[in-house]
Amino acid sequence: MINSWENAILPPSATIKDALLIIDSEALRVALIVDEIGHLKGVVTDGDIRRALLSDKGLNTNVEDVMNSSPVIASVGTQRDVLIEKMNRLDLLFIPLLDGKVLVGLETLHGALNDRPNYQNPVFIMAGGFGTRLKPLTDTCPKPMLVIGDKPILETVLLRFIEAGFVNFYISTHYMPDQIKSYFGDGASFGVKIAYVHEDKPLGTGGALGLLPKDLPKNLPLIMMNGDVLTKVDFRRLLDFHNENKPDATMCVREYEYQIPYGVVTGVASKVKSMVEKPIQRFFVNAGIYVVSPRVIRSVPENHSIDMPTLLEKHMVERENILMFPIHEYWLDIGRMDDFNRAQNDIQTLGLG
């Protein structure tokens, strides 16, 4: 039984945002909802939150609206091998332990949380852009090689994947490719394999898929990511989501809020029907991270220029089998100078450096 389960406790009055802070800061992958007398009311997992976001629930939604109020539980004192067998059989990562109705502990499937798997799925990182909006920094350095904290952006991206257990990498290059290749080499110094595909002319994120070698694993989906994005997305969960649902592609999306700075008036003819002062509009935006099936990869001819949204739209027309995966973790696209400066401030506090 782990000792930090008390750190995962929240009251029923907490919000989704509070649960996110727990899930992102603790290694338990769960927030435990407990009332004032210690009774377990429910649990909130990463999956519960993503489903809530897809259902248009905001971060200030009460956890009682999204929690699982009937989780699998066990009595304190249950033998650990019995608990492990139950977690394996039911595909669970944890079981709350109760004394009557009072929460007194949490048993986890220790191996699932701590043993790093070894994924053979290819990881394709886009690193060929010019970084025009970051001039003059990019006059002599490709944007993915700009240093954030004490290492290049691209190295931070690579290390996040390595930490999650991925070992096979491809990097697309175009602008100043030698700087990238000389720094990372074949990946041996990082304990992984790195190969490069070079775009003689920019082909777009989708077009770069057509340059990948034909001997990629035939049945394994590939993860794509822009090389200028800092994020704490859990790539294991992303891949699990894709494998469980088996779409042609999964696109990571991020909720974006925009507040209209005026009162919005609706009406019929000249009659006012409603007035809303400075309403907030919410949208999902493309986060630049994808999981794509071999079918999508094979659909891109060599040296064919196309961006990923256009490529995925083509497959949506054909089969309507493109899914989105909402991310709530830290995410920053380093496209402008203020993004670069923000990343310098964020990198250490977020544990990405």
Q: Spans of 5+ residues with little confidence (pLDDT < 50)?
A: 111-115
Give a count of the beta strands, DSSP E runs of length 2 or more.
19
Shape: globular
Report the end-to-end length measured between terminal Cα atoms: 31 Å
CATH superfamily of the largest domain, by name, is: Spore Coat Polysaccharide Biosynthesis Protein SpsA, Chain A
Helix content, binned percent: 25-40%
Give the topology string: H per helix, E per strand.
EHEEHEHEEHEEEHEHEHEEHEEEEHHEEH
- The top-level CATH class of the largest domain is Alpha Beta
Percent range for β-strand residues? 25-35%
Query: Given the helix and strand composition, which structural class is it?
Result: alpha/beta
Largest sheet: 7 strands, mixed
Summed up, the domain count is 2
The name of the CATH architecture of the largest domain is Alpha-Beta Complex
> How many DSSP helices?
11
What name does the CATH topology of the largest domain carry?
Spore Coat Polysaccharide Biosynthesis Protein SpsA, Chain A
Strand order of the largest sheet: 11-10-7-12-17-14-18
CA radius of gyration is 23 Å
Q: Estimate the mean pLDDT confidence.
A: 88
InterPro entries: CBS_dom (IPR000644), CBS_dom_sf (IPR046342), Mannose-1P_guanyltransferase (IPR050486), NTP_transferase_dom (IPR005835), Nucleotide-diphossugar_trans (IPR029044)
Pfam families: CBS, NTP_transferase
Keywords: CBS domain
Protein name: CBS domain-containing protein
